């Protein structure tokens, strides 16, 4: 029940912030949509006409996942930095639930609140380009859940760094390009990247949404890879964060900016 209350509170917080700062929310959506239009225009102008439709579909899937990765992985770093600046980070550490549980529910809240935005961007992109992808919820759901778990692990790593170093804005700006690289790189070009976070999940989502592969058409080995990635990166991220939190408490970094 305490978990449910914590999730409800953080979900309400994310929703209120998006609603209260509506101009900023609209500007964020317009920015991402304009970036997509620029990609689409580039494909139309300099792309190979014979593979144009496939390239557009490829960009739609990657661009949507890039937005989701930015929200889940990068935003938590900005939140921790803001908490430190406002002097409320120490208050979080005094919660009986613990900081890591608060961050985990915030990550879940970010996904829940921004999921509607993701759906709107997806259908707006398909409407703009006239390319309608295969939305097989039954097949996409387990892939998306496991991929999100690995993203949560990265989110914990960023949160841990933010607690220790406080000023990580420059790194967060660089991070958006790293995430773009992980999302946009074709796995066929570099198969070894399958064991990096996000990459394998995005590749499977592309197979479902572009090639129309169904749940039973995905190999057992593919599921094992995204399951391994989900467990590995979540555990690594959580352990890293807990060590950073312990170090911050030891050095008194939670109380001061």
Concise summary:
Helix content is 79%, strand content 0%. The chain has 257 residues and is an all-alpha fold.
Element-by-element helix/strand order: HHHHHHHHH
Q: Structural class per helix/strand content?
A: mainly alpha
Low-confidence stretches: none
Note the total helix count.
9
Provide structural commentary.
This protein has 257 residues and is mostly helical. It has one domain (2-251). The chain is 79% helix and 0% strand. Helix 5 (99-129) packs across helix 6 and helix 6 runs parallel beside helix 9 (220-251). The longest helix is centred in the N-terminal third of the chain and has 35 residues, at 52-86. It starts with a helix and ends in a 6-residue tail after the last helix.
Write the layout of secondary structure elements.
Blueprint: H1 2-20, H2 22-46, H3 52-86, H4 89-93, H5 99-129, H6 137-165, H7 169-184, H8 199-209, H9 220-251
Helix pairs in contact: 1-5, 2-3, 2-5, 3-5, 3-6, 3-7, 3-8, 5-6, 6-8, 6-9
Key terms:
257 residues, mainly alpha, 79% helix
